[in-house]
Amino acid sequence: MGASDSAAAEARERELTVTRVFDAPREVVFRAWTDPEQAALWWGPRGFTTLSCEMDVRPGGAYRACMRSPEGTRHCRRGVYREVVTPERLVFTFAWEDAHGDPGHEMVVTVTFADIGGKTTLTLHQAVFETVAARDDHRRGWISTIERFAEYLAAHS
Fold first, then answer.
1. Which residues of 39-62 are buried (b: 16+ CB within 10 A; e: fewer)?
2. Strand 119-127 to strand 16-22: parallel, antiparallel, or no bridges (unpaired)?
3. Are 124 and 145 in contact (CB under 8 A)?
4. CA-to-CA distance for 17 and 110, rounded, in angstroms?
5. Per-residue pLDDT reduced to its tens digit, 89-140
6. Which stretches within the chain are classed as H helix?
7. Helix axes 26-34, 132-156, angle to 10 degrees
8. φ, ψ for residue 102 (rounded to 5)?
9. What does the alpha-carbon distance between residue 32 and residue 52 come to, in Å, rounded to a whole number?
10. Exposed end of the chain (fewer CB within 10 Å): N or C?
11. SS3 23
């Protein structure tokens, strides 16, 4: 394996893909994902509370959201929408803010919403993480968040 092959394999190890089927129409799933009032009700891992959620869902538009962990720690993330194809696809940057509000390592998140006979397959891809451990932390967070999202959709659609 050459150096470029090795680097590509290492980068793939620091990518994350999560897929889930929701028993709700694609338009409903997309709207719940892109409406800040709805997102504030389900965003974040179980036990986290959304403190603020601002979303300008258009190419070049920014978002910023803060949440509090069960232990009381504040976590804020921000980014810019690169692509918005309603109700099919979102591409946006993702960076956690540090204690001073400055963005950290920036990644790209792509979320696709596929219609499958009145249900929706959501596929989330995030890359490239700084470490495999960071990827694994995000995997746990996204899976818990998507569980909360499923519960929200079941109760509101």
1. bbebbbbeebebeebebebeeeee
2. antiparallel
3. no
4. 9
5. 999 999 999 988 888 999 999 999 999 999 999 999 999 999 999 999 999 9
6. 3-13, 26-34, 36-42, 132-156
7. 120
8. -90, 140
9. 16
10. N
11. coil
Q: Measure CA 63 to chain center.
A: 12
Residue 66: enclosing H or E segment and its boundaries? strand 62-68
Residue type at 6 in one-letter notation: S
Of the candidates 150, 126, 147, 149, the one whose C-alpha atom is nearest the C-alpha of residue 138 is 126
CA–CA separation, 155 and 15 (whole Å): 31
Closest to 96 in 3D by CA, of 125, 72, 122, 73:
73
**Distance from the Cα of residue 35 to its chain's centroid:** 14
**Separation CA 120–CA 157 (nearest Å):** 13
- Three-state DSSP class for residue 59: coil
pTM, rounded to two decimals: 0.90
How far apart are alpha carbons 58 and 8 in whole angstroms?
31
Q: CA-to-CA distance for 156 and 85, rounded, in angstroms?
A: 23
CB burial of residue 107 (10 Å; 0-12, 13-18, 19+) = buried
Give CA–CA dist 7/36, Å, rounded.
38
